[in-house]
């Protein structure tokens, strides 16, 4: 087994792609499994792309040969077919990790928690979810915990809503703004006065890389929460976008309410909209992550200033250019 060889599942997505990039830059030999080789090769250089499907156990086992780490960052797009796909994919990762004696890294979510855990979430907060996706996430973590009894090691890094240059499917890129378009308005899904937790993807990836560097000192099952960027009153993220766009273009976008009514009307016909509606409660419930355990282990949390992170995200999504001109006129 190569102690510096890693398999990333979901490397064409947001968090998987960013973790793969940072591991490569840190000197790891990075392999990635994908059904679309051309997309992967065009998207990330310096990575060994392997053709296969995370739903095929043998594909995952073959791809993981010689790997000391498997990053499980794969999800069905648009929340579609979670019950049929999410747990089988994880079981395949567990099977491969047990063969190799590998460490599994999982990006965690706040879906696991219910009202009895809010508003401040800690690693030992009770996990009593009230949604279907939350129940699946709890089952995922239980299966991972069980796997540690058979020789696997597990690291879970839990953070808020992702945003970044390549965020993929996220509230930031699919709700607040429109990628590839000049920003005339910010459509905010939450209510003013309600705290919401955000996480900048490169910071999340850096946290995972640094934890992996210390994995031999960690227990078989470890969970870490990131403080990320806390929007304390439901206006901080929108104002950051307004500031960045104004500094770059001289025009300040307005802030509007997200059209939840439209999702409700269209939800009978669009699966993704139905799944988004199920998670609406996270925009009306204050959420804050306690990162004390992470600070204990790393001494600090990787943290990019909010305006800098927002600027990088908007540049990466083709909404502005760093020279101060909008991408589109």
UniProtKB/TrEMBL annotation:
Segments traversing the membrane: none
One GO cellular component term: cytoplasm
InterPro entries associated with the record: Epimerase_deHydtase, NAD(P)-bd_dom_sf, NAD(P)-dependent_oxidoreduct
Domain of life per record: Bacteria
Residue span, NAD-dependent epimerase/dehydratase domain: 6-215
Pfam family, one: Epimerase
PANTHER family, A to Z: NAD(P)-BINDING DOMAIN-CONTAINING PROTEIN-RELATED (PTHR48079:SF6), PROTEIN YEEZ (PTHR48079)
Name used for this protein in its record: NAD-dependent epimerase/dehydratase domain-containing protein
């Amino acid at each position: 087994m190569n102690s510096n060889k890693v398999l990333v599942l979901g490397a064409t997505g947001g968090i998987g792609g960013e973790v793969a990039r940072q591991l490569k830059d840190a000197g790891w030999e990075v392999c990635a499994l994908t059904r679309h080789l051309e997309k992967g090769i065009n998207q990330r250089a310096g990575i060994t792309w392997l053709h296969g499907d995370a739903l095929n156990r043998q594909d995952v086992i073959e791809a993981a040969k010689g790997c000391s780490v498997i990053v499980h960052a794969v999800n069905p797009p648009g929340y579609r077919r979670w019950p049929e796909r999410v747990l089988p994919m994880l079981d395949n990762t567990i099977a491969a990790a047990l063969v190799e004696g590998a460490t599994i890294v999982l990006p965690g979510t706040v879906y696991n928690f219910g009202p009895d855990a809010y508003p401040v979430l800690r690693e030992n907060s009770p996990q009593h979810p009230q949604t279907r996706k939350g129940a699946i996430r709890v089952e995922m973590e239980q299966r991972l915990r069980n796997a540690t009894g058979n020789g696997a090691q597990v690291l879970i890094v839990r953070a808020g809503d992702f945003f970044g240059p390549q965020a993929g499917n996220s509230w930031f890129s699919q709700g607040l703004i429109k990628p590839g378009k000049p920003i005339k308005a910010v459509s905010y899904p939450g209510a003013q006065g309600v705290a919401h937790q955000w996480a900048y993807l490169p910071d999340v990836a850096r946290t995972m890389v640094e934890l992996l560097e210390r994995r031999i000192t960690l227990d078989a099952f470890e969970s870490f929460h990131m403080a990320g960027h806390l929007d304390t009153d439901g206006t901080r993220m929108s104002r950051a976008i307004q500031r960045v766009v104004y500094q770059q273009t001289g025009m300040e976008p307005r802030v509007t309410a997200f059209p939840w009514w439209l999702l409700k009307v269209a939800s009978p016909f669009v699966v993704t909209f139905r799944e988004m509606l199920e998670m609406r409660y996270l925009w009306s419930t204050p959420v804050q992550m306690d990162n004390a355990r992470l600070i204990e282990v790393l001494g600090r949390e990787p943290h990019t200033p909010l305006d800098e992170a927002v600027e990088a995200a908007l540049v990466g999504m083709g909404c502005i250019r760093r020279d101060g001109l909008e991408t589109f006129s």
